[in-house]
User: Fold this.
Amino acid sequence: MTVSLIEQARIQAEMLVPLVKALQAELGEARANALVRRTLGDVFRRYGEAFRRRKPDADVGTIMGSAFATYARDAALDYSVVEQSAGAFAIDVTACRYAAFYKALGEPELGFLLVCGADYPVAEGIGGDIALERTQTIMQGASHCDFRYRRTNNAG
Amino acid sequence: MPTEQEAPISHLQRRKIEGRVLIPFIEACRERLGDEVTRDLVVTTIRRLAAEDGERWAKTFGPQVAGLRKVVEDVWASGGSQEISVTAETADRLEFNVTRCRYAEFYQELGLADLGALIHCSRDHAMIAGFNDDLELERTQTLMSGAPHCDFRFRRKS
Assistant:
């Protein structure tokens, strides 16, 4: 795929943002968001599964490192790695063009739903008992996003 | 096309990228809200965006028939996305048939031609209104809906 993920996200937002807003007007925000989360959750879980198929044996540090290299293409993210090992991948994202894009649209809440919301189902799809913990994001106004991926059970 | 890019993205590629999230989204809406409500929701939104495309293309290519032909050939059909045969072009009309359409093939391969008509074909009438409101489109059939060709007839309103 030659089109970077940030560019794909921009293309998708063009239709998705007005449609999700129309859906929120129809169903109310909570029910609309739940529907969006469930629907896109399936899409993103399949992305995660496809990612795993390309790297069936990679450990947490390797596979998530490679995922973030993909997310960051086209200068989309600046991040510093706190820990990268067989059982963990911990980074702080200090600049995010996905967030800049949604903030420029005046829609950071939709950005959180449509972009940041993808990270959990992607991790589920990647599988291998990877769990994500994240307490804050730039999209929600924090100074950085604290991604902490760890292997939960200790099969390995 | 809106943003700065590392490499130009064809219109077809954009529509495919968009389809990846749009198709499941619309299918879920249908399941939840029914066909009719979903249709209204989607068509209203798509028409507004298509009218904006039309305005932007009019600025880029000029709001006349010659500019419209450039939209058709350089945007819609770029990179071999469509095969087009123009049957008439004057200052007041542009008539052509689309004999092959990879946008339609994309949706048909997914078994989703009805969604393709909604997401893709339903743009064109709104696009022309944004492009030049003195022009109108008459089209009686499309490849997406199973016809052997799409019959685009753009004319100056009488």
Remarks:
- Helices of chain A lie at 5-27, 29-54, 60-71, 97-104, 108-114, 119-126.
